[in-house]
């Protein structure tokens, strides 16, 4: 086990800023840009590995051009999987190729907790222990379960403010992170075989103040999703990105629900998860009792209308984003976001006033 989180990823600078493996959105260009800026970028493979080989190949090209190498035989990026759906054996066949071995694999949302062990064991074996295991958890119970079953190198502690999928019922990171750290530390202290993982906070962190607060809560690093939706390198429709930039006051303008999954047909998620996104006409109609068939028809019409489906009071397209949406103010490069968040957090942690820097 490395002496610090950043020591495990030698190209990174403390405090570690990572980009969430957002399915379809975090591809090679976003993940590599975050790593090039001294963070750790994750490609979001999700449950589907059809484009994984080509995204890894694109990543290698970008990293070679940037002359970013780890000298340890791993690619300085990670890949995230939704393990309720991603095929383990086929994934390992890709990740075990010497040119593809990522620095980290991120596991989220098992259909059964034992899947965590199968994936962690499989990835460690396929990479000869070179790939670190990150597991995203949404509660103290899940954190203990993941630690006991899979001995992760990193636990990503996801609070309920997070954009995209998370626990339908959950706590914010201000209580979840320290309680999780205490419980996992107590378990690891009493176990002779389970080293203490590093902790990364996720959910509602959009800039340096949230990142600094997470470090004060005991995390060694932070993971941002929503903020990177406004990165130049994100693979995202302009209507979606504009909706993120327009929104503010995310506690009242976003909602965690399964309505958007139903309308999009992404209903394979295990029970207990919901997706947080901008609260729009699709959700309002669902709450008002509009039938699923009618709501779906309106949704499909909105899909056909393209970027207009994200505009104004009638917006109804899915806009997964977290409560930190109001702190996302402008489109920036992923490198600039990564450096800004890290540097602002460092300034605050070294005693500078915690106003917007
Ligand atoms: C648009 C979007 C897509 C996401 N997709 C995934 C995913 O495919 N896999 C995953 O593990 N987490 C996914 N997440 C959740 C992130 O891992 C992370 O917990 C979250 O983005 C952190 O909160 P924040 O959005 O407030 O920064 C997604 C988040 C967003 C906003």
TrEMBL record:
The keyword Oxidoreductase applies. The keyword Transmembrane does not apply. One of its GO terms (molecular function) is nitronate monooxygenase activity. Keywords: Flavoprotein, FMN, Oxidoreductase. It comes from the Eukaryota. InterPro entries: Aldolase_TIM, NMO. This is Inosine monophosphate dehydrogenase. It comes from Aureobasidium mustum.
């Amino acid at each position: 086990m490395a002496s610090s989180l950043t020591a495990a990823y030698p190209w990174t600078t403390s405090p570690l800023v990572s980009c969430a493996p957002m399915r379809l959105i975090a591809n090679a260009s976003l993940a590599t840009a975050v790593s090039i800026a001294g963070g750790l970028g994750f490609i979001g493979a999700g449950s589907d590995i059809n484009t994984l080989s080509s995204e890894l190949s694109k990543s290698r090209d970008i990293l070679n051009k940037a002359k970013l190498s780890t000298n340890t035989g791993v690619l300085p990026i990670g890949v995230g999987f939704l393990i309720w759906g991603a095929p383990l054996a086929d994934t390992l066949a890709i990740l075990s190729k010497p040119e593809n071995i990522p620095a980290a694999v991120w596991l989220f949302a098992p259909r059964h907790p034992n899947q965590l062990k199968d994936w962690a064991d499989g990835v460690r074996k396929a990479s000869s222990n070179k790939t670190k295991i990150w597991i995203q958890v949404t509660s103290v119970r899940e954190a203990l379960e993941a630690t006991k079953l899979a001995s992760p190198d990193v636990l990503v502690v996801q609070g309920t403010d997070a954009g995209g999928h998370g626990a339908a019922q959950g706590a914010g990171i201000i209580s979840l992170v320290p309680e999780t750290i205490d419980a996992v530390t107590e378990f690891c202290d009493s176990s002779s075989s389970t080293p203490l993982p590093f902790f990364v906070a996720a959910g509602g962190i959009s800039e340096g103040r949230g990142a600094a607060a997470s470090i004060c809560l005991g995390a060694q690093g932070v993971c941002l999703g929503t903020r990177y939706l406004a990165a130049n390198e994100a693979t995202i429709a302009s209507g979606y990105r504009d909706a993120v930039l327009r929104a503010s006051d995310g506690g009242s303008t976003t909602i965690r629900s399964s309505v958007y999954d139903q309308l999009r047909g992404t209903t394979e998620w295990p029970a207990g998860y919901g997706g947080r996104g901008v609260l729009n006409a699709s959700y309002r109609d669902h709450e008002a009792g509009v039938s699923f068939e009618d709501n779906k028809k309106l949704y499909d019409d909105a899909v056909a209308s393209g970027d207009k489906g994200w505009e104004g009071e009638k917006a109804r397209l899915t806009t997964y984003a977290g409560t930190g949406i109001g702190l996302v103010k402008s489109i920036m490069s992923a490198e600039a976001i990564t450096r800004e968040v890290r540097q602002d957090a460092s300034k605050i942690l070294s005693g500078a006033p915690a106003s917007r820097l």
